[in-house]
Each structure stands twice: as structure tokens, then as C-alpha cells.
Known about the structure:
By secondary structure, the protein is of the alpha/beta class. The protein has helices at residues 21-34, 58-68, 87-100, 114-117, 127-145, 181-190, 201-212, 229-239, 249-252, 256-263, 268-274, 281-294, 308-319, and strands spanning 10-14, 38-41, 73-76, 105-109, 150-153, 158-162, 174-177, 193-196, 217-224, 276-277, 298-303. Helix 2 (58-68) links the parallel strand 2 (38-41) and strand 3. The longest helix has 19 residues, at 127-145.
Amino acid sequence: MAFKNPASPLGYKLSAEEHAPLALVEHARRAEEVGFSFAMISDHYHPWIDKQGQAAFVWSVLGGIAHATSRLVVGTAVTCPTLRVDPAIVAQAAATTAAMLPGRFVFGVGTGERLNEHILGQHWPPSNVRRAMLEEAVEVIRELWGGEQVDFDGEYYTVENARLYTVPDEAPPIFMAASGTKAAELAGEIGDGLIGLAPDSELLETFAKAGGEGKPRWAEVSVCWAKDEASARRTAFEWWPISGLEGEMVAELATPAHFEQAAKLVTEDKVAESVVCGPDPQRHLQEIRKYLDAGYDHVWVHQVGPDQEGFFAFYEKEILPKLA
Length: 324
């Protein structure tokens, strides 16, 4: 079954750093039930901070989601197929997942963060090398998805007599995450779509000029719904202080403890600048439309903190009908 871009522009974030694996499966079922057209799940070895408390193996969770849902498009946001797991193994994991989610799996990839990818003791490369590794990894993955025997001798990866026997009828699209110009150019060149984190129209123009014209452009928005704004601000600050961190630091810190130390420099007001807090539907709609107006065609929403059910009820009533 061929992949089709979800008809509705609104998706849901399965935050694997904050929720246990069975809870993530249930959240995916509920997201489908209330009307979200797609969901994106994070792929981490560590949470950002200890308070978040989880980091399940994403490929096991995706198997459960495949069984619990029937319409929901699901993707990784994002997998780094370069250091922690060899691209030949990631190719097998993603192919199996796509076979279990026919026509409704998106393979999101990116260059990763030291937080998750340094764990086997490899040198953490600079950004230009990480992009080159990702480009070669995607080449390996696409070749293996063809279902034929592959021999590959590249600069970073070697594959010998490898063949994937379990493959989907059609390969899933590969969306690449980008926050800077060079990554956006690479995404346009090798990706089937773009994943972004900011309503940056210049980034989208770069992606389009590099080969991304007409390709899907998806982005993530963070919110914290609660019955009152003060409670939402406290929850966002407690569970997601990393939203207040900027620049290359996010890719370079090595442990949750390092992120906790950095987060001490962040205030509740700073977090509230990047996380929409509270029960006002207009503020949620305004933030989502900011991304759509910038040129993204799909936006998924990350509800920070434990109260996912309150968020689902709010979005089912107040937000989804307005963006159908």
C-alpha cells in the first residue's frame, strides 16, 4: 500500500521520554479515536532530564501501536541511524514496522544528539561529518529496502551479503529533520519530506530550492494544556525545561544530568515563551497556524506532562474541529 499524506493537518506527539511503553500505545489509540490523523514518536536512549523518567526502545512500541490502531499514520521523530545503531539494522527495524503499518509509516531521520548516540563510546563527530554519515546511512537503508542482496563499501559503513526478507510492498517515505541551512539542503536532496521545529519560512525555501519543492513539510509544536494557565506553566517548567535551551548545546550535552544543570539557567517565563500554556483555544490555534502560515502542511502537537487525557478532551472539542 502506497503512503498518502494525512488528510488532516494535525498530529499528536508520542513523547517516549515522558511515558511508559504501554501508555504510549494507549495514547496512540486515543489519538486515533479523537481524530488526530497522525502521530510522531521520539527515538531516544535517554530522556532529556531524569524527571521525564522514560526512554523505551521505539521499535517495540511501534509494534504495539501497529496492533492497537487501524488508520493512524505513525512516524519516528526522529531516528538517528548512524552511531548507536548501524543503518543496516535500522533498515530492518523500519522495514518490519512499515510492513506492520502498511501505507501509514513515516521514517523520520536526523543527525542526532550526543545525549543518545555516544553511549557505545564512539567519538561524537562534528555536524558536517554527522550529515555525511546520515547521507550515507540513508543510501544503505534505501538499498536494503529493495529486498535484494546488498554489498556496500562506503566511507562510514560496510554491508556484506545482506538481504532483508521482510519488506513492505512499498518503501516508506524518509523525512529528514533540519534546523539549519545545510541540513535543510541535505533534506531537500535526499529526503522525501522535511521535519522542522520552528515556523521558519526561510528554512522551507532552502529545502524547496535544494529539491524539496512539493514534498511534505511537517513540524512539531509544544503545548501544555491544563485547567488554568498557572498550573500549565508550572508543569511545562517542571517536565520540559529544555524548551528554554537554544543553540548547539542541545546536540552536544552528553547526559540528562548535564541537561538538568543547563536547565537551571532557564526560567518559567522562558519556557512559557516556547510552550503554549493554558486552556485558551485561541492561543493553541494561533501557534499551530503560525507554522501552517510559514509553509508547513502538517503540524503535530506535543502535550507536555502527564495529563494526556485532559489534552485529548480539549483538542477533540476545541481544536480538531477548527482544523479539520
